[in-house]
Specification:
The protein is of the alpha/beta class. It has 8 helices and 21 strands. The strands form 4 sheets. The protein has a 12-stranded parallel β-sheet. It starts with a helix and ends with a strand.
Length: about 375
Amino acid sequence: MKRQREEDRDRDSLSNLPDEVLLHIMKSISIKDAVQTCVLSKRWKDLWKDLTFLNFDKTIGFDDSIFNMFVSSVLSNRHHSTSIHRLDFITGRHRCIGSELFNSVMSYAVLHNVQQLTICMQSNLVFEPIWFSCRSLTSLKVSLTNYTQRVVVPKYLQLPALKILHLDLAVFTASDNDCADPFSTCNMLTTLFIRSFRLDDDVKILRISNSNLSSLTIGHHLSGPPPYQIEIATPNVKSLTIIGTPILQLSFACNLSFLEEVYINIHSGFRRHSTTTDAGLDVRTDSVIVNWLHVLANVKIMTITSSTISTLLNDLSKSGSTRTQPPCFARLEALKVKKLPSLPSLKKLLVEEVDAILEYILQNSPLARVEFIR
């Protein structure tokens, strides 16, 4: 009896807190549990309806039909005058989401001035990416895990408040002649992550142009298309990450004077390509990584993986390599070598081979230190 009175007193103490405090606490629990607080007392009955963080993910635990009804019920019953600060729509591998429901959720989020939107799903949906016209967005992350689907990015992004953009499986369309340049209109953008993207049939060059961008990640794991030409015009970028297979022909339209960190993780075992440029030159991916090292000469800290070393060793051993002149890292302070457990390890390379690659990279940077990390 005494214990029951203590629990009631604790509950009453919690209920006496301001709405803002209770809503902040409710953000740390699942939306299912947050909605269920309505049965605690009259004080809690409508409190959840003012939640500004809606997290619809697989942890809700309902089957598909109940999940769909739950999402619809939350959106129809919450206070419509309350804006959405953050919405996560993350489904599991086997979750079946209807196109109508998904599009309704996205429309609701845009109409309620969502600021942070995360979408991660595998369902094969028919949808209109209306989030690309949401002027309130500061963070947008769209990740499709179904490789038969693509998110078509408009020619120009009209997202004036956007600071963070993460796109998986996107298709870029031409904005000017044969060039796609979608990011130049995002004046607040600081972080860009694109992975496993494709260029539309009429696009030859993807231009990443943004003077405010400080962090750029380019990932590509698809070996089917010919080498893509990527032109980077980001004079204030500080962090650059390149992941995947080296089928990207990178060129830089500016000096990367503020470049602090570079991370390169190239998967070995990729299918090599050979293509002919308009000038009639044969460009092979054998020399791609070597070319990257030359254009990243201003970096202070560079991290390369064991798989990258293996690929680079293979590139430099080919007599047809188009550029064997070692790079010159004038500001390099540290070269870090990262061992990846799931990929070829340094143990499979001879010590002499690893030393030869490191000596090649640091030939013109005698003051840089070497670190082996996990």
